Amino acid sequence: MAELAVTAPAPKMTLGRFWIAPPLLLLALLFLYPLGLIIRQSLGDGEVLSSAAFAEVLGSHEFRDGLRHTIVIAIGATAGCLLLGFVFSLVIAFVPFPGAKLASRLIDTFVALPTFLVTLAFTFIYGSAGLLNESLMRLMHTDLPPLDFLYSQWGVILAEATVYTPFVMRPLLASFSLIDQAQIEVASSLGARPWRIVRQIILPAALPALVAGGSLCLLLTVNEFGVVLFIGAKGVITLPLLIYGKAIQEFDYTTACVIAVVNIVLSLGLYSLYRVAIAHLGAGRAGVV
User: What pLDDT does 67 receive?
Assistant: First the structure.
């Protein structure tokens, strides 16, 4: 009996694997290519690559001052976002009052607003000729505004904390909605005080959302440009503002690209820490963010 040779059917050519090509080409054109140009420019204008520009820029007082302002403002604004976001989310989620749902909807709307609107409102309220200073000057019979914090580092921190607090509240409110209300009721019936309920029940459940929201705020404040530029705080120069000044005002593209590379590395490092923190806390618990 002759043996029948069974041949496997030839694999069909499908176009499914090629659908990834257009997104990759678009990513390379819009992101990787400009990034490569920035890195190339940071290594010098000539044909020979050199790290001399990095040594010169990183050792300058102007860069160190800008880096210090960037880190201080980012940490201060993020701490303010975490504090305000946690308190406001607690009130909206667990303190019944008329308009709680409307307030949560307004938070989503506030995220879509441009950042310069907040700084403009701060100028009208807390500026030298703002409503608050005008009222205090009339009340105290003085010619100089008593409040002069807006055009300082503290004014930038307050403005950025106001802008980015909703980015903390959104994951927190989602996390609070998953907490079993029976646990809070049982703890309250057993005599637990509100602070103990917050510390032992609410805070552990909200920790992944706090880490996610705080990390996002830290990334956004490190790269914030509009708020710092619009307020115009005297002597407060951050890395994004320094890049703008070097590239647009001084036409020093090599220095601007060096600072941009440092800013990119700083942002990627913060994002990596965020991913490590989320993985450490558990992907299951952080699913709401």
Answer: 93
Separation between Cα atoms, residue 44 and residue 51, nearest integer Å: 8
Structural domains present in the chain: 71-237 (1.10.3720.10)
What is the residue-wise DSSP string for 227-259?
Answer: HHHHHT-TT---HHHHHHIIIIIS--HHHHHHH
119: its two tokens = 């700084």
pLDDT digits (tens, 9 = 90+) for 49-90: 778 888 889 989 999 999 999 999 999 999 999 999 999 999
Amino acid at 105: R
Angle, vertex CA 245, rays to CA 243 and CA 248, nearest 5: 95
Structure tokens belonging to residue 42? 């940071």
Cβ neighbours for 97, distance < 8 A, ≥ 6 positions apart: 91
Residues in the chain with pLDDT < 50?
Answer: 1-2, 4, 283-284, 286-289
Angle, helices 61-94/100-111, rounded to nearest 10 degrees: 160
Per-residue pLDDT, 120: 85
What pLDDT does residue 16 have? 59
Question: Environment class of residue 272 by beta-carbon count within 10 Å: exposed (0-12), middle (13-18) or buried (19+)?
Answer: exposed
| Cβ proximity of 136 and 145 under 8 Å | yes
Q: Length of the chain, please?
A: 289
Of 160, 80, 57, the residue nearest 118 (C-alpha): 160
Which residue is listed with tokens 């010098």? 44
Q: How far is CA 254 from the centre of its chain?
A: 27
The rounded distance, in Å, linking the Cα atoms of 241 and 185 is 50
Contacts of residue 135, Cβ cutoff 8 Å, sequence gap at least 6: none
Q: Which residue has the tokens 């590395």?
A: 265
